[in-house]
Amino acid sequence: MLDAQPSPRISWPRDVDTVVTELRTLAAVGDLDLPLPGGGETPERWAALARLGRRDLALARLAEGHTDAVTILWEAGRKPFSTALYGVWAARSGGTGAELRDGVLSGTVRFCSGAHRLDRALIAALDEERRSVLVEVDLADERVVTVPGTWLPLGMDASDSPDILLGDIEVTPDMIVGEPGFYLDRPGFWLGGIGVGAVWLGGAAGVLDDVLAGLSDPDDHQLAHVGALHTAIRATDALFDQAASIVDEDPLGDNHMLAWICRSAAERAAWEVLDRVPRITGPTPMCRDPRFAQRLADLQVYVRQHHAEKDLAAIGREVVA
């Protein structure tokens, strides 16, 4: 899945405008038109997402959200708006989340990546019966309001992921994507989760690329860490290749366990990178190379989208059962 050579870096200094400009360029030339998961070319899809993560994680975060939205629309028998950049906003953390009551969408949604720059979003809301309902929203609507002060990170800063306040948006039938429960019940939900893991793995490989580019006359301890990281990344890469073959053989199968394993393996590889890389480099590049320090910070923030011990416990529960 991972290419032998690293991807070209996004221009620096990087901010959300730089990232979105690059994202629109990729979309215009067709580089975001990825094969559908489970359609026989799943390895190519995940490889493309990994390449984006290896290039820049903020760019990859927005690209992954857009490509996931396009896939969701396809699964629902719909087409995206031409030239529009999409996000998928579904977080329900800390008691927040969108609600759909009597045809009105409201609430606060956290971690809405691309909030100030994207064109449209698929927003997961709970209806009166606590079913998940997916709503397509035009982000030019003045009732979609970003909440100041809710995205102030060092890592993944350029992903532009603040809270969004939905101010009683009237939802017409054409805004509803699929039936109630469609978003979580479709087979593509778990496949999309593996795609996020592919981005994490690409991000981990990108940090190692930078280490290798700056390494000269390494000692045995540094070489040992490089060997451990290469092994962790390549082993996880092989797992993703195997998972892609399984998915393409049975795209409608129950892939939730496969998704948990792939995501957990990618998270483990990322943390190997975050733990070992500073031991290889020492503090100098983290203090004098802002691009390198940014990549480390991005990876640490983004990989926390993994549910950590909660997902590991779910895997263990199924293994024991």
TrEMBL record:
The name this protein goes by in its record: Alkylation response protein AidB-like acyl-CoA dehydrogenase
Its domain of life reads Bacteria
Source species: Kutzneria buriramensis
- Gene Ontology molecular-function annotations: oxidoreductase activity, acting on the CH-CH group of donors
